[in-house]
Amino acid sequence: DTAVSQTPKYLVTQMGNDKSIKCEQNLGHDTMYWYKQDSKKFLKIMFSYNNKELIINETVPNRFSPKSPDKAHLNLHINSLELGDSAVYFCASSQEVGQVDLQETQYFGPGTRLLVL
Amino acid sequence: GQNIDQPTEMTATEGAIVQINCTYQTSGFNGLFWYQQHAGEAPTFLSYNVLDGLEEKGRFSSFLSRSKGYSYLLLKELQMKDSASYLCAVMDSNYQLIWGAGTKLIIKP
Question: How far is CA A18 from CA A76, A80, B8, B14, in A?
Answer without folding.
Answer: 11, 5, 35, 47
